[in-house]
Design a protein that fits this description.
Length: about 290
């Protein structure tokens, strides 16, 4: 993709017009080719941008304003409909360009499989990488009904690449028994049901390390985020997720990239989910980009 001119569509509020001057590249990954239940997350990035106009530019949590972080909204990566192999290659190629320019990649999904090529690209630049993963689901399957490229496999893929002990999952409340057993046997950290308190215990262990954070919006209870592909009861509140984002901001980990995925706006006529996602992105930008 070209970065020599600003994206002509709707952009996230206060997006900086100049790529070269920006610290962060915000981009969409509009793919839902492998979902097993409800499609529609490919429309998530566009809607998050559109509703962001309703955000306040100031965060009372962090006492910072969006003007303090220069981020360039590059728009959505043009992905070939129905072709996961090529789509993932294009995502990795895009993120590599961002990393080569020493900028912070910030992705919006899209189904969770889109995180896999991003994490792979980030690992190539930061070989000591750790992953913080917040989700309702383990995403540790080797395949789903015979398909290795599935939204239920990205965490297994990155764990096998960087080592399971470097992957930390939080808020997990759904998955096959075999997935939980694999994590336990291979030294991967999984915190069931909760995020904030176990995160507080883990963050000091990651001090100084490069960390990539991937958040599936369904870590939230469906009462807080009904607009997602695979809803799962018993999740955390939006207040707890915000507090977890701020806990990372106060820690000594070096966040080198992030994404927020699985917003499917068609299932939420109130637009609560998209509006929550845009606020979460504001807090991540202000808290994690120094």
């Amino acid at each position: 993709m070209r970065f020599d001119e600003a994206y002509s569509g709707n952009v996230f509020i206060k997006s900086h017009p100049n790529y070269e001057e920006s610290q962060v590249v915000l981009y969409g990954m509009p793919m839902d080719w492998t979902v097993s239940y409800r499609p529609g997350s490919r429309f998530g990035p566009a809607r998050i941008r559109e509703v962001s106009i309703g955000l306040e530019e100031y965060s009372p949590y962090l006492d910072r304003e969006l003007d303090e972080v220069k981020y360039f909204d590059a728009g959505d990566i043009p992905l070939p409909f129905g072709n996961p192999h090529k789509s993932l290659d294009l995502i990795e190629e895009f993120v590599k360009q961002v990393l080569d320019a020493d900028k912070f990649p910030f992705g919006m999904g899209g189904e969770h499989l889109v995180s896999w090529p991003v994490m792979r690209a980030v690992y190539k630049k930061y070989p000591d990488l750790a992953i913080i993963h917040m989700d309702a689901h383990t995403d540790l399957r080797e395949n789903y009904e015979g398909e290795e490229l599935s939204h239920s496999t990205p965490i297994r893929k990155i764990a096998e690449l960087i080592g399971p002990s470097n992957v930390y999952s939080f808020g997990i409340r759904s998955g096959m028994k075999e997935e939980f057993e694999w994590a336990k046997q291979n030294g991967m950290h999984i915190s069931k049901f909760e995020v904030l308190e176990p995160l507080k215990e883990i963050l000091p262990k990651l001090a100084g390390r490069p960390v990539y954070v991937t958040i599936d919006i369904d870590v939230l209870d469906p009462a807080h985020a009904p607009g997602t592909g695979t809803v799962d009861a018993g999740g955390i509140t939006s207040k707890e997720l915000l507090a977890s984002i701020h806990e990372i901001a106060r820690s000594e980990v070096n966040v080198v990239g992030a994404d927020l995925v699985e917003v499917a706006p068609i299932y939420d006529v109130s637009e609560q989910t998209a509006n929550t996602a845009s606020k979460l992105i504001r807090e991540m930008l202000l808290g994690w980009v120094k």
